[in-house]
Write a structure and sequence with these properties.
- The protein has 401 residues and is an alpha/beta fold.
- It has 2 domains: 247 residues, Type I PLP-dependent aspartate aminotransferase-like (Major domain) (Aspartate Aminotransferase, domain 2); 136 residues, Aspartate Aminotransferase, domain 1, CATH 3.90.1150.10.
- The chain is built from 13 helices and 13 strands.
- The strands form 3 sheets. A 7-stranded mixed sheet has the order 1-9-8-5-4-2-3, sandwiched between helices. A 3-stranded antiparallel sheet has the order 7-6-10, with no helix packed on it. A 3-stranded antiparallel sheet has the order 11-13-12.
- The chain is globular, with a radius of gyration of 22 Å.
- 47% of the residues are buried.
- The structure holds pyridoxal-5'-phosphate.
- The site of pyridoxal-5'-phosphate has 15 residues, from helix 3 and helix 4.
Length: 401
């Protein structure tokens, strides 16, 4: 038996030196608030918004306090009203239904497919039965649905799409960046996402009124003229007095930390994908493992990997997770009825109306999930894959005996 794995699944890369230097300069200036500027100064927050908008090819960009805040603000800025249905994936992270609740909406959950993306047929059914005007599309764990088919369906249904790109910052569908399909997109810069400021987020959009509302909502007071990636003043004139201030601005310190990381994002994406493919290659040879298919049009960011073990029952999956952990490999199981740490299933979000998603239940019941931190070498990733494969093989021979 080979040695146990000793890597740390939650250890991120250090913040780059250039980012630390910038952060120190901001602290020395004392001007951490985005509207605290001296003549001629472009604050870090404004520079970051311009750079992120350019990276995404978006007209407008707003930096804010978190990905979850970005989601709820995009929904409010779109005009979701109290009790209004909002479609979303049945498989996502809890801040997504949380953002719908925060905006006063009622989440209508849509089934997923075995490739872990939203099921477009079920989307059509749920959109018709709920008369929803908006879909919060979660690219959960970086899996991107067929965006051509999805946007065609959304157009037919007259449903606006707001994209949750927490796991697809840097990803593309064909030649289009993930986040450029819908009316708005939301990103997170929380520590476990693709660029790291501890907490933080973005909204991008090409829609003038949505972005003007989002800016006022984020707590711009009447200082929105100090932004560079928002619409012109006349758009604000129409909405500024009817839009509440729900304070959630980004500060210059976080922006300073993010700018050098954004400049490196494409390189980080390549580093993740080499690691993802190393694990995928090993797991692909293990009997009883089903990996999600990744279509040719999808340029993903492999910051985590998912796989199903469809022929294991609940107790066998628990045994697999425990045995892997004993060898130093941390798997999360999305089928657990009891929410654990970051991982929870839709039926544990009890503030939602009860909904039945038999396909999603079947898929999640055997779905395992593993982080891929960039502090792992490619060889570490192969080793992790081998440990999962060995452990599963032992369990299966024991089961068959
Ligand atoms: C992390 C995450 C969010 C929310 O981001 P925060 O910045 O932590 O609020 C939203 N959606 C998904 C899928 C996420 O993983």
């Amino acid at each position: 038996m080979s040695a146990n794995f000793t890597g740390n699944f939650t250890q991120q890369l250090p913040i780059p030196e250039a980012a630390i230097e910038r952060a120190v300069a901001v602290m020395r200036s004392g001007r951490l608030h985005r509207y605290n500027v001296v003549d001629g100064e472009v604050p870090e927050t404004v520079a970051l918004e311009s750079e992120f908008a350019a990276y995404m090819g978006a007209r407008f960009c707003l930096a804010c306090t978190s990905g979850g805040y970005a989601l709820q603000t995009a929904l409010r800025a779109f005009g979701v009203s109290s009790g209004e249905p909002v479609l979303t994936n049945g498989f996502t992270l809890s801040p997504v239904p949380g953002s719908i609740a925060a905006a006063g909406g009622k989440a209508v959950l849509v089934e997923i497919t075995d490739d872990l993306v939203i099921d477009i047929d079920d989307l059509v059914r749920k959109a018709r039965s709920s008369s929803a005007r908006v879909l919060m599309l979660s690219h959960m764990r970086g899996h991107i649905a067929d965006m051509g088919a999805l946007m065609d369906a959304a157009e037919d249904l007259d449903v606006a799409v707001i994209e949750d790109c927490a796991h697809t910052m840097g990803a593309r569908w064909g030649n289009t960046k993930s986040g450029a399909h819908g009316i708005a997109a939301c990103y997170s810069t929380q520590t476990y996402k693709h660029i790291n400021s501890g907490e933080g987020g973005f909204i991008t959009s090409d829609d003038e009124e949505l972005m003007a509302r989002a800016t006022i909502l984020s707590g711009s007071y009447m200082l929105y003229g100090r932004h560079e990636t928002v619409p012109a003043g006349d758009v604000f004139d129409r909405i500024r007095l009817e839009t509440p201030n729900c304070s959630g601005r980004m500060d210059n310190l976080r922006a300073a930390i993010l700018r050098p990381q954004l400049a490196e994002l494409d390189r980080l994406v390549d580093a993740w994908n080499v690691r993802y493919r190393a694990i995928e290659e090993v797991l692909g040879t293990v009997p009883g493992v089903r990996l999600p298919r990744r279509p040719d049009q999808e340029t993903y960011v492999g910051s985590s990997i998912q796989f199903q073990v469809p022929d294991l029952d609940e107790s066998e999956i628990r045994a697999l997770v425990e045995a892997c952990l004993a060898r130093g490999v941390e798997l999360k199981w999305f089928g657990d009825a009891e929410p654990v740490a970051f991982t929870s299933r839709y039926d544990s979000w009890r503030y939602l109306e009860r909904q039945s998603l038999p396909e999603t239940d079947r898929i999640l019941s055997s779905l395992l999930d593993m982080r891929i931190p960039l502090t792992f070498s490619v060889e570490d990733c192969r080793e992790v894959g081998r440990i999962v494969g060995d452990t599963l093989a032992k369990l299966r021979t024991r089961g068959a005996a």
